[in-house]
Inverse folding.
């Protein structure tokens, strides 16, 4: 397992080594020993999400109100996607920074999102399947969104592709407006919540 620390504090990219033979491919996108070695605790799975998107579908930027917050472990099970993490934790040393990972079924890269970070992905092929392990169950009233086209963030969406967004994502506010409205999580609260949920 190759591990890359992302530009967002606490975020990591994991790239497993697929085993291929005449029967097909075996790959382990989440490996406990490598994960704990990088992050410092095990991933507390509460739910698995399976999302199928057509080419050009952009989902995000999404985050979960903290508390309770939500950690995510995301990989692409089919197709190809551009996955983005943004640090929206007020007081974080990397607040406002982002990183991106191209995910596909050749490399099976996965990304760990610590509590308080925002997530978006763009499907680059038809029938792209993104699978998430998440640390808390889905609760609709805890789910928040930030404008993925906020010019202050400058996220790397292609200009040549017609993008498809939900009404909620189209109407989402920019990062600064979210901060002024008190929507954003506090960095110290996120660290405390993550520690409490993992028994640290």
């Amino acid at each position: 397992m190759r591990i890359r620390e992302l530009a967002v504090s606490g975020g990591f990219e994991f790239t497993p080594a697929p085993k291929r033979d005449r029967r097909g491919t075996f790959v382990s996108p989440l490996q406990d020993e490598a994960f704990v070695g990088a992050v410092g605790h095990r991933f507390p799975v509460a739910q698995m999400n399976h999302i199928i998107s057509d080419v050009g579908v952009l989902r995000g930027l999404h985050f979960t109100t903290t508390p309770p917050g939500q950690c995510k472990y995301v990989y692409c099970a089919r197709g190809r996607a551009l996955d983005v993490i943004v640090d929206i934790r007020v007081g974080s040393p990397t607040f406002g920074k982002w990183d991106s990972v191209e995910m596909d079924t050749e490399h099976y890269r996965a990304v760990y999102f610590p509590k308080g970070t925002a997530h978006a992905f763009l499907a680059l092929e038809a029938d792209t399947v993104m699978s998430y392990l998440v640390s808390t169950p889905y609760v609709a009233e805890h789910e928040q969104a930030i404008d993925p086209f906020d010019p202050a963030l400058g996220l790397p969406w292609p200009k040549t592709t017609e993008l498809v967004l939900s009404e909620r994502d189209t109407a989402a506010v920019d990062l600064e407006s979210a901060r002024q409205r008190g929507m954003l999580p506090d960095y110290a609260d996120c660290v405390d919540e993550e520690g409490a949920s993992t028994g640290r």
